[in-house]
């Protein structure tokens, strides 16, 4: 699908006291989605999501997967929610839809907007050949788990994230790199003097 095609819309209804339209994301939505994600995916509220959320994430989805990127917009044309996904194509297996980011502004939560976003995303993924749709969320996020189960997700599995702090290694390698640059620079200048002397 071309990025410059007109966005699809779903009939408006009342959510949070205002009419909300769910439509395909456009390039003009990128800043609003990014800033809303910054509010939602904080280190305290969503530590795993916080680690990977940045402006390049939103731009990347728009560039590569715009047909799986939807926004919810209120009557003031303010983005109040978004869903960003992708379809992973496997040559010798089923294709997988993957809902990676789903966020709704706090004052619009529990108004059905997340459901509407997912209900726009799901058929887009099916049309693209997905036979399974996956999502991941923090095992401690009860509200998120209840929502995804309500949407029909099941077969939940615990997943362990491991991290390694390599900051000290990075500093040591950076120090070595700087020493080599200084040594090469000094050696080059001493060699220049020997040639001209």
Give a topology summary.
Elements (H helix, E strand, L loop, with lengths): L12 E3 L2 E7 L5 H11 L6 H6 L2 H11 L3 E6 L4 E10 L6 E10 L8 H15 L2 E6 L6 H9 L16 H30 L1
Parallel strand pairs: 5-6
Antiparallel strand pairs: 1-2, 2-3, 3-4, 4-5
Descriptive notes:
With 197 residues, the protein is of the alpha+beta class. The protein folds into two domains: 13-150, Aminopeptidase (3-Layer(aba) Sandwich), CATH 3.40.630; 164-197. The chain is 42% helix and 21% strand. The chain contains six helices and six strands. The chain has helices spanning 30-40, 47-52, 55-65, 113-127, 142-150, 167-196; strands at 13-15, 18-24, 69-74, 79-88, 95-104, 130-135. Strands 1-2-3-4-5-6 form a six-stranded mixed beta sheet. Residues 1-16 have low confidence and may be disordered.
CATH architecture level-2 label of the largest domain = 3-Layer(aba) Sandwich
Estimate the global geometry from the Cα principal axes.
elongated
Largest sheet: 6 strands, mixed
Strand order within the widest beta sheet = 1-2-3-4-5-6
